[in-house]
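Let us work through a complete example step by step.
Step 1: write down the sequence.
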Amino acid sequence: MAFYLFSMHVPLSFGGLSAVTSILHCSALDPQTEALSLVALQTLELIGVLLLLRCPGKPQYKLRDFFQEKRSAKERNWLFVSALGFGFLVLLVFTTSIIVDWLIGTKEVNNPILKEILSSGPISITSCILVYCIITPSLEEIVYRGFFLTALSSTMKWQQAVIVSSVVFSAAHFSAENFIQLFIIGLILGCCYCWSGDLRSSIIIHSLYNALTLLIIYAS
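Step 2: predict the structure and record it as tokens.
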């Protein structure tokens, strides 16, 4: 997990755009180029993770094991878990957002950079949808739920594993301002994954939540 964070996640997610800027010899990227760069960087990170998981140090496990439904949870419908988890996530985040806005005030735009990218044309919008609704949810759920949470669950109670994985998930975004919100999102995604035993449930919830966030930012 540490190897992934420091060799892939930090360099690509936080230093990738700076590297693109240097390669293109420009002072700043225009919104469309930034959007396309995000697609390339996140795709590269996803490919790197999948290659890394092919050799997890336990040869008896294969990459497809991360995507297979757990036998103990086959009686639970992962689509039902996805719908229930998404509804609960939206309700909980909406409630906490109201409380935070009441305590510290309302922000005009949650993410002005993303707002600018979404407003720059159809190519940028399509790129954002690919990144935030397909690539990133798949990447983060494979890492934090499919691999990390599963590994923690083998050495501690699943409730503790969900909490620890959610803390790491939130901290890995390097956003003190959104730490609590990301921690709550991680808790719900982790619980849904443990309940359904199917990674598809947490990927769908994550994807739908990101899509809703993009819609709100675009409409604001």
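Step 3: interpret the result. The radius of gyration is 18 Å.
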